[in-house]
Design a protein that fits this description.
It comes from Paenibacillus nanensis. By secondary structure, the protein is α/β, with parallel strands linked by helices. About 45% of the residues lie in helices and about 15% in strands. The strands form two sheets. Strands 1, 2, 3, 4, 5, 6, 7, 8 and 11 form a nine-stranded mixed β-sheet that branches. It has a two-stranded antiparallel sheet with strand order 9-10. The longest helix has 24 residues.
């Protein structure tokens, strides 16, 4: 096994110095409807910087319309308004990122994202509204914040039908913004808010299609917040009983959110997606399949065959920002050298340099091999390194792979004190 992988890497891997050194990836990605850019952790600078570099080229050279990320809709929409120039000129990217206040805030409130936001704002500066590139969050965690945003939007619109929103808000209110408490009440005692949420989404669905030009995207935002409330309600209700199914609820929601964004931007629109490798790399080629788990990469490939291009990322060693437990202070931790015979260790053994691979006929020797592939979450324990590897057929899970031999931690703009409960 070792010799086969090393021979393939030696033959197919090329030195990596940024997108300009990997034009073959760009040419294939530029033709896709969805370009999925992964990461092996949520706290590594190189992944953010490199995805930003790829995104800039896809936007400027191929006309990609938006970046969708593994983040909450309300806080990302604040940043979206900033990059499109809809906020006060005196506000900078740092201020626009203040809405990322809940743990793990470093995922998006970091220097690397701030620099991309400034670039996007400058790029959008002289463009008409319908040509500006957006930045959106497609995750499910913003149940309470999204409810508040919906109420705020409808209260500012004379004659709006706000009653459905008030009913949904009142249904959730007794649970005191405690997702676990809500999940227990809904799952075990039948005290859920599913009907109210479905009715709210129905009231707001597709209203952007008939909205005035200056309200069109805000009307979309109201619908997307309602979608996030619906997804969050289902996620927290399901999580109490079925961890694997709650994962599936989350990833199906993210695909639905992506499709809503495509519809808003036009059926020919192309999207860039930033998420962890565990979301963008096809789950069918990992041990997730044994748990009946699906993910964004799998769902998009199944539905949009030939229109999806997924890029995985990895590193041999370095540093990362993460927490020791959910909600604990962010720490800069050491990422130890990859374990022997893992995908990352074999890439390092071939030579301690950054590399890229485009999977295809010349990497077919990898297609039947399952290798350990490192995945670091927002909660991380370097001393338990053996448990941080996902059995993976790498050449099937992704269309291309970018490897950094040594990486460093992102630079958070601040440390968040609040945690998701």
């Amino acid at each position: 096994m070792e010799s086969k992988v090393l021979q393939t890497i030696k033959h197919a891997a090329k030195p990596y110095k940024g997108p300009d050194s990997a034009e073959a990836i760009l040419k294939k990605a530029g033709k896709a409807r969805f370009v999925l850019l992964g990461e092996a952790s949520h706290g590594t600078s190189e992944y953010y910087v490199d995805r930003a570099a790829w995104s800039k080229r896809l936007i400027t050279e191929y006309g990609f319309r938006f970046i969708a990320v593994e983040g909450d809709w309300p806080s990302c929409y604040t940043l979206n308004r900033y990059v499109k120039g809809y906020t006060d000129p005196g506000i900078g990217a740092r201020e626009a990122l203040q809405d990322f206040a809940r743990w793990p805030a470093w995922m998006w409130a970091n220097r690397e994202v701030m620099e991309l936001a400034e670039w996007l704002r400058q790029y959008n500066k002289d463009k008409p509204d319908d040509e500006k590139v957006g930045f959106y969050g497609i995750d499910v965690y913003s149940l309470w914040e999204s409810m508040e945003e919906i109420l705020k939007y409808l209260e500012a619109k004379p004659g709006s039908d706000i009653e459905a929103a008030k009913r949904a808000f009142e249904c959730f209110e007794p649970h005191g913004r405690d997702e676990q408490r809500y999940g227990i009440s809904a799952s075990f005692y039948g005290e859920g808010c599913e009907d109210e949420v479905v009715e709210l989404l129905r009231k707001l669905q597709d209203k952007w299609k008939e909205a005035a030009a200056n309200d069109r995207e805000d009307a979309l935002s109201a619908e997307m917040n309602a979608l996030a409330v619906k997804g969050g309600e289902t996620y927290y209700r399901t999580m109490i009983r079925h961890d694997a199914e709650s994962w599936n609820v989350r990833d199906r929601h993210m695909v639905e959110a992506l499709e809503k964004l495509i519809a808003f931007h036009g059926e020919d629109a192309q999207a860039i997606v930033w998420e962890h490798n565990t979301h963008i790399g096809d789950a069918r080629w990992t041990d997730m399949v044994a748990e009946d788990m699906v993910n964004v990469g799998q769902l998009l490939r199944e539905k949009y065959d030939g229109e999806v291009f997924a890029v995985g990322y990895g590193t041999y060693h370095g540093s990362v920002i993460a927490g020791r437990a959910w909600g604990s202070p962010a720490e800069e931790m050491t990422v130890p050298e990859a374990i022997k015979n893992s995908w990352e260790e074999l890439l390092h053994r071939d030579g301690a340099e950054n590399k890229w691979l485009l999977f295809g006929d010349d990497t077919s020797a990898l297609d039947e091999l399952t290798l350990g592939h490192r995945a670091i979450g927002v909660v991380y324990h370097p001393e338990w390194e053996q448990g941080n590897y996902v059995p993976t057929v790498v050449s099937k899970r992704y269309d291309a792979f970018i490897y950094f031999d040594r990486t460093r931690a992102v630079t958070p703009l601040r440390e968040a004190a609040a945690a998701r409960s």
